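Purpose: get a first structural picture of the assembly so the mutagenesis plan has something to point at.
Setup: two entries, given in the order below. No constraints added.
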Amino acid sequence: MFAGRIIGRVVCSEKVQALEGKKLLLLQPLTWDKKEDGDPLVALDAVGAGSGEFVFFVKAREAAVAFKEVPPVDATILGIIDGVEFNGKYTDGK
Amino acid sequence: MQFAKVIGTVVCTRKDEKLEGRKLLLVQPVNIKYEPSGNPLVAVDAVQAGTGELVLLCSGSSARQTKLTESRPCDAVIMAIVDTVERDGTVTFDKSQGS
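Result (structure tokens, whole complex):
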């Protein structure tokens, strides 16, 4: 699982049925010391994350398992991070 | 998922029988600034997308999770057509405005 920050939202009215009622978010992958790590991607939200939040997400087929309908998604946001201890240093989720 | 722009269709008379009846589109992955990123690829269309539209592309084995692609040899599926994208509070793409 990887760290990221929610930077926006994607709205799609035409989508596969399994995605109805679900939230697509724009996500900037980050390293664990919160530096940008690669291009932003779109991820499905499983936890009610909002703009600006520090989150962790899963990529590939496992992303679909987070939902009962097993939708066609390759990235899912699984948790909102309150704080991380990384290299002996604690930082909060901001 | 990745943003991509539909740039064409691919027609194949002879193909794996599990792909029969599936619409194949040529898509160009784009980055967050909607500039081409990497090489175009072929994806199965699950949402009746058309040329020029900005779509969401799901790749890898997750692409088999639609009714159209379940248990079929497919590693990329178009699973949504993008209406709007909002980034840092600004709308960066709006289909109705054509940009």
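Chain A has a mean pLDDT of 91.
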